[in-house]
Each structure stands twice: as C-alpha cells, then as structure tokens.
Amino acid sequence: MFRFVVKPIFALIATVMVSSCAIRPLPDPVTRTDTYNISQHIRCESYYALRNFVTELIRVRHPEIARMIATDQLNFKNLDYDKLDNETRRVIERYDQALIAYSFRFEITEFNNLNGELDILHNLTNGIFGLTASANSDHERQNTRSFRVIDEWKSLLTIFDHEICEQLDRPQTENFAYPIAGTIGMAEQIRLFYDMTQSGNLVGAETINPSISDTIVFTTRLGSSLTPRIELVPLSELAKITKASLKGEVKRWDIHQVIVNISLPDEGNKREPTVAELRAIRELNRQEELQFDNDLAREIARELR
Description:
305 residues, 39% helix
C-alpha cells in the first residue's frame, strides 16, 4: 500500500518544484512581461508625459497649435518653431537637449527546498524496531540583470517610434502587485525638473548644471509550500509506516530598481561654479553616501533578524 500512496506524493511535489525552477531566474514570471517591454513601458510613459507637458506649455499662448497636437493633426516632428512666440520658443529650445537617463537593475533569487521524512515500525520476536529516515534537497539560484537607456527630449518627441507604445499591453495606472510593470510617475518628475530648473536653482551632483534623480526600488517576495502526510500505513504483517511526510517549499525574492535622471547639458553660457558651491556639492554627496551606507546596514540587519 505504501508503494501506491507515497509515489504519487513524490510525483506531486516534484512537479510543483520543477515548474517553479529556473536555471537563470528572469523578471518575466513576476512582472508578467519581459525585460524589453518593461524598459519600453517606462520610455512610453515618459513620451506621453513629455508630449502632454510640452503641449500644455504651448497652449498658454497658442491654444490652436496645442489643440492640433493633442488631436494628432500636428506632430512635434513637423512643428514649425517660427510660428511660436519668442518666449515659448526659447523655453522649448532650451530643453531640446535635456536628457532622460534610466538605469535598470533586476535582482532575482529563487529558493527551492524539498524535505522528506519516513517513520517505520517493525515487529521483532522480542520487541519493536523503529527507524526514522529523512532527506532534503535545497537549491538557490540568483540572477542580476542591469542595463541603461538614454533619451533626449527632442528625439523622444520627434524620432521615438511611439507606435510601439500603442502595441504594448500597458496598464495606465499603478500596478501595486508588480509596480515596475505599471506607471511610475514620470509626469510628476518631468514637471518637477522643469519647475526646479526654471525657478528653483536646481544643480547637479557634480556641477551646477540642472539635474534631478529618483531611485525607485520595488521589492516583491513570493512563497508557497506543500506538505502532504500519511500515517499508519501497513507495509506487511510485521512492519508499518507510522508517519511519512514531504515538504516542498518555493520562495522567490525580486528587487527591481530603476534610477531615472533628468538633466540639462552644459548650455555654454553658464558660469563656472564658485569654490563655495563646489564645497556644498561635495558635502551633499558625502552626506548622501553616508545615508546610503546607513540604509544598507539597516537593511542587512533587518534581513538577519
């Protein structure tokens, strides 16, 4: 009887474990989309956010041109800057060479553990002999994937193939289950960069050229386990199983990070930073590094608890 009960259990556990294993873990099973589409999704979000933002800038003094852009009767590639007033044209041309840079990093770890235990009692002439046998198989796989993408504002509006965006199965709101596969707030960051550059004395990490960065980290932890058990199964008149159990456990940790930096290149007419400004920038960098080290130490301590 043991033969017919335990074998199906082993088969079930093995099926669950194998189906969740991957020699090289990828983001796809968690995000429900592949790496290429994740990057394209975010670039498309930037495209739509930038398109809407520049359209609204134009609408202030040229509502008819803005209406034509919004209704796809006119695109930025064919937009004649000479039809804009000097102030609007100056602002748009200033940001033509602004850059949106993305640094993607996916850290994925999978754990697959299988443990089994078998208790057997055997009747002897002068007593009972007991035997407990156990075995386990633990596996861990990790993959880190990182890459960078850079878009220029003007190129994003005029050259970027936005028709790709219409073909993507892209949610238009936040994805709380798999955040990096949803919207990440590019419209707010683009607007903030513009406001801070125009009137907020925004500077970069190394120079006084305007620059702003967001580091967005999403952590997803998934897990499941299966523990079938049988008891008191006779093997023969002399021996019986008092307990037999298997435990299959599958865990997966995903840390998805994207750093988004928006910056303006050297505009040529900018002055060199003063000694005091350079000192202030260096001190900010030092404090940020200290904060990063403290945050990392706290994260490690939390994981060890």
